[in-house]
Sequence to fold (224 residues):
Amino acid sequence: MKPAIPIPWPHADGFTVLIDGGATPDADARQIAHFAVLGSLYAKIVIKRERVRVGLMSIGEERTKGNLKIKEAYGLIKAVLGNEFAGMVEGRDLPMGRVDVVACDAFLGNIMLKLGEGFAAEAGRMLKKNLNWLGLIGALLMLPSLKKLKKRLSWEAVGGAPLLGVKGNFFISHGRASPKAISSALSQCLSFAASGAAQTIEAEYQKHYAHFFNPAAPPVRLAS
Fold:
């Protein structure tokens, strides 16, 4: 199966894992189900979520929404993850933290990622441009909170993310990464490698899920 990149998408109570953020743009339904499993394991092992809710990105919450690939992926994910699967989610659900993991192919995932980066940057510029003198006073009073918010929304503070579904510790960084972003990515990569998370994810995947995606195995029976 193809690899995937889990991207932390911040919201008020933490963050949601968007997977795949850029590794496999032409993923089919079976591969998207595979990403959902990797995202679930990542949330449990790396983020320490006890109960994980996994959503499938689509154009509506209804089971019947989406293209043929998404409809097929829905049945596969439900069959493999069972009660962990929360069903279809929409783009607005990602920044609202409705679920812990959102699965999609990298074509859609990377567009969403770049859209979020651009919106965060432009929102700051719009705020500065439209502040009057009263707003400036308020901004000064809120400066510590604004700095914390800026750090949470900055992709440079994250820097990079692991490549899941391959053996070993591989991190992917932004194509236009700054020295600050590279530094953040290296720091996270060292922590990820030291934790043994990649090996734990692989072991859990092989133990509980690999048989679902084995080409020689009978096809997964789609859940209705």
The two ends are 24 Å apart (CA to CA). Residues 58 and 67 are 8 Å apart (CA to CA).
